Amino acid sequence: MKALVSVKRVVDYNVRIQVKSDGSGVVTDGVKHSMNPFDEIAMEEAVRLKEKGKVTEIVAVTIGGAKNEETLRTALAFGADRAIHVKEEGEVQPLTAAKAFAAVLKKEEAKLFLAGKQAIDDDANQTGQMVAALLDIAQATFASKVEIDGDKATVTREIDAGLETLEVDLPAVITTDLRLNEPRYLKLPDIMKAKKKPIEAVSFADLGVTPAAGLKTTKTVPPPARSKGIMVKTTDELVEALKSKGLL
Amino acid sequence: MSKILIVAEHAEGKLNGGVAKTVAAAKGVGGEIHVAVFAADAAAVAEQAAKLDGVTKVLAVNNAANANPVAAVLAPQIVEVASGGYTHVFVPGTTFGKDLAPRIAAKLDVQQVSDVMAVHGPNSFDRPIYAGNAITTVETPAGTVVATVRLASFQAVGAGGSASVETVSVGAAVPTHTRYVKLEAQKSERPDLQSAARVVSGGRALGSSENFKVIFDFADKIGAGVGASRAAVDSGYVPNDMQVGQTGKIIAPELYFAVGISGAIQHLAGIKDARTIVAINKDPEAPIFEVADIGLVGDLFQVVPELTGKV
């Protein structure tokens, strides 16, 4: 069974985000980028499923400019067998990304589409669900446990009310939450091996995808700052401070 | 004029509190506001939705397939209803809504607006990116506007209304490729995290499940909901549905106590809208003190029981 894993290149999660003073966006030039952490979890899960003999081939896919090859090399170092680079230099919003992934999924006849539940840049949390909708296949989002049995998957999902279990027929989309697994450290030999694995370049046109009309961002600002607080020394002072604010 | 369809989230015959906040966001758009209740038997929930101020009509869709909320099952039904002249489809920004809304948007061939935190007009909204470290204003293109509403950004509307309830039959075929198996819910007598006026959260410094008792005791004394940092959840001290933060629950209580929580960006993203933040931590350098309204440096195992005795 073939698994397709989508990976996105984003500003590294350790970077302190700076909003441009002219309100035109967030500073992304010259800052460290890495694979979206939720996508690392998706890659790790695919590799574990392959180690268990449930998945036979892992194909990593990304959409973006030339720099995204780095992210695909990381996916190949994790254990993807090969990669597909959908080349697109401009901004790609979730519906357009989903159309491209759906086209790749169909072409590859993959049974499993694994993706992070959201990317930590736009925090949209949409693409996986949209891929499933476009192909009319099952989706199990926010997964914290995945079991594959033949042409079915049993997925435990982290939802507000607790842990929900769904059974889905394959092909299906599964999006990963934090506690699904802990991604491995990449070892040098794997990184070296990844350099020799094949990456196929395709365009939206090759996939028959027309970009959907997008949201237009008119302004980007930093969040409102909180006013400076006070420090108290004892619990009595704390109780007093809360009472004076009418909170107790 | 706008005509807004809100998808009701509900469980065990009770309307989710997030729906009243979603109605508040819809009121910002203006126009007609309809709430659709999809259930095996929608009557009880529809009655609750009809009381929400600002709602002009409630649509009850009864179908045995809707006994449990499964996005793939709900989406085609919602798309059919939405095709009846609706300009907007709003869903609460809970795990229910986040799972469901993109499935609706893709079927309607439109981009979705995630986590609406302010409404400027029918086609202009604010939403957070980068874990709330930047706020963008976006304009939607032509077509239906599908959005999830960030609940912490809106005050629930009152329940003094009396909209009419209409039973609607929906013909859309629903798929069978996704089957609900079970829900392991944490039963709790405490106030729900997302609607509680007071919340007390514990972090890694608690050190164990047993030690969380000091948090529970204090919370019970002041009638608060109980949350936790990701570190406390990952360490297995408390279940995941208690996690407060960017990847857990985003909350907006009147009063928030962060106990033994250092204040990682991911946690702060979940409490930005709390009215008053109190931090108790033994490390005076902890980043939580930078956002706290009131800070107390001290050993939580001493401070918290002391507080419990004094409030």
Strand order of the biggest β-sheet of chain B: 7-11-6-1-4-5-12
What does the radius of gyration of chain A come to?
21 Å
Unreliable runs of chain B:
none
The CATH class of chain A = Alpha Beta
Question: Which structural class fits the helix and strand makeup of chain B?
Answer: alpha/beta
Written overview of the protein:
The complex is a heterodimer of chains A (248) and B (311). Chain A has 248 residues and is α/β, with parallel strands linked by helices. Helices cover 29% and strands 31% of the residues of chain A. In chain A, β4, α2 and β5 form a beta-alpha-beta unit. Chain A is globular. The mean pLDDT of chain A is 96. The radius of gyration of chain B is 21 Å and the shape is elongated. Chain B is of the alpha/beta class. Chain B has a 7-stranded parallel β-sheet with strand order 7-11-6-1-4-5-12, with helices on both faces. In chain B, strands 15-14-16-17-18 form a 5-stranded parallel β-sheet. In chain B, β16, α7 and β17 form a beta-alpha-beta unit. Chains A and B meet through α3, α4, β7, β8 and β9 of A and α3, α4, β7, β9 and β10 of B. β12 of chain A pairs antiparallel with β10 of chain B, so a sheet runs across the interface.
Compact description:
The complex is a heterodimer of chains A (248) and B (311). With 248 residues, chain A is α/β, with parallel strands linked by helices.
List keywords for this structure.
heterodimer, A: 248 residues, alpha/beta, 9-stranded mixed β-sheet, two-stranded antiparallel sheet, 29% helix, 31% strand, globular, B: alpha/beta, Rossmann fold, 5-stranded parallel β-sheet, 18 strands, 25% helix, 29% strand, flavoprotein (chain B), Electron transfer flavoprotein subunit alpha (chain B)
